[in-house]
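retry 2 of 3: previous attempt timed out while embedding adenosine-5'-triphosphate. Reduced batch size to 1 and resubmitted. Inputs unchanged:
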Amino acid sequence: MSSLFEIRGLRSAIEGKEILKGLDLKIGGGQVHAIMGPNGTGKSTLASSIMGHPKYEVTDGEVLLEGEDVLEMGVDERALNGLFLAMQYPSEITGVTNADFLRSAINARRGEGNEISLIKFVRLMEGKMKELEMNPEFMHRYLNEGFSGGEKKRNEILQMMMLDPKLVILDEIDSGLDIDALKIVAAGVNAMRSEERSFLIITHYQRLLNYIKPDFVHVMMQGRIVKSGGPELAERLEAEGYDWVKEELGIVDETVGQA
Ligand SMILES: Nc1ncnc2c1ncn2[C@@H]1O[C@H](COP(=O)(O)OP(=O)(O)OP(=O)(O)O)[C@@H](O)[C@H]1O
Ligand SMILES: [Mg+2]
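retry 2 succeeded.
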């Protein structure tokens, strides 16, 4: 089977400091991959580099979505081609309502002359918000402004559901969610699982993976993936922490190091 998404030897730097140091990852269609790893090992940098965040300079490697060169695409183009990131820290945008934002994003993807009608859009958004048990008022609130931590996370999942992406990256979607919200968000993700869509889930806690069963679990240290396994790897990390991985691989400092 050819992979839906593939990263080869990715190197990425910020302000001249290299964070990703030759990262390889292959994700097949329909698969869920989880990335775990200690703080400051480059997980969010990976997400931002894939999405084309302008602060991160990719210096080497390849990123392919269905065989297409992602690194050649502009930021907008990446989203249009089906990459989606639910951010660890979503930004607040005053003056743009949640509905405005999502409608423009959907229409950008559908293209000129094929815009979604207002009625259809509202019905779609209301339906998804209901699934996520969100208060209807969030439709007309400014994007993330004054949202609680958990409300922001739920709203990221709303965006994912509305935009119908091919590769979904969730960066610590479980942080800040209460137990009921975690179940609702996981149900939203599980409802989106299909052969045509893949997931990359960054998390610190095995608990999320009880609700969203991953096919593969990877450990990130020093800006690359150093160990991969199945769901049992996450269970062992939860129980024992990371010291055994470091010992096994002879790693002393797991962070990306100083400049
Ligand atoms: N804009 C930036 N300026 C300076 N350093 C940065 C910047 N972004 C990332 N870094 C550094 O890169 C390293 C990796 O950061 P990153 O956010 O990718 O880690 P992470 O694995 O997501 O950690 P966490 O689990 O805490 O979210 C850190 O040392 C961080 O300080
Ligand atoms: Mg992070």
